[in-house]
Amino acid sequence: MIWTIARWSVALLAMGVSAQIAAEAQDLSSSRQSVGQPSKDRIVVGLGAAVTPVYQGADDYRVLPLPAIDIVQGRIFANFRNGVGLNLVDDRALTIGAGVTPLPGYRRRDVPTGVDRLSWGVGGRIFANLTGGGVVATLGATQTITGSTGGFVADASLSYPIILNPKVIITPSIATSFADGKHMDGYFGVNAREAAASGLDTYRGKAGFKDVSALLNIVYRLDSRWSVTGSVGATSLLGRVKDSPLVEHATRPTGFVALAYRF
């Protein structure tokens, strides 16, 4: 249920995976206590904070206040992972949607002196969620439209919501992503001019699997309207991208907490 104007890192994306599934698990929990097929429509808003690296692979951390939004009204959705768009197919077992989503950048002060900042961007996204046997599988693809790194990123995740009781839902998740060379070079690359200014080695990114994440999300329902969400997890960079001079740590933990109200 976490959505913000910029996805600051893949760690926050992983939080979005679990938080969105947790909201769906709350729907499932409610449906078990009701008769008939409940509506999927919901409006959840709130405020949270995340502790996350200033960019993927960075040594420094920052605390980010984040709005919490998870909206489904008919075929229209707005959430952290998929941005804003329309569900083209929407039933209990399969959801296929498309929309636009913000893409992350980093500030000049967050990277070594001499390395350019990376502007935010906007991407077009398509995704499919498949639910079966209690497991939620998601496949998605995002193509940059403007700004940010350019390029293409594909992602996949598996989540398993566990309803311990009507108040507590635990969701372990794993996720991975693949990026093309343009994205890898835009985010992790160091060109000759930047190398001369910063003293870093030059580096050119290439297509490949970018990262893998593991996350544990816990939702505690205070009542029928209010809930608290907490997440802990870690993201590890994969393959050659770890050789980028911008990467100080291949694996970084993250944390998140939010208080949300459901209308």
TrEMBL record:
Q: Main localization of the protein?
A: membrane
What are the transmembrane regions?
Answer: none
The organism's place on the tree of life at top rank: Bacteria
Which Pfam families does UniProt cross-reference here?
A: MipA
**Database matches in InterPro entries:** MipA
Q: Give the record's GO CC terms.
A: cell outer membrane
Renumbered to this chain, the signal peptide range is 1-19
Where is it localised? Cell outer membrane
**Alphabetical UniProt keywords:** Cell outer membrane, Membrane, Signal
Task: Please give the family membership noted in the entry.
Answer: Belongs to the MipA/OmpV family.
What is the recorded name of this protein? Outer membrane protein
Q: What organism is this sequence from?
A: Sphingobium scionense
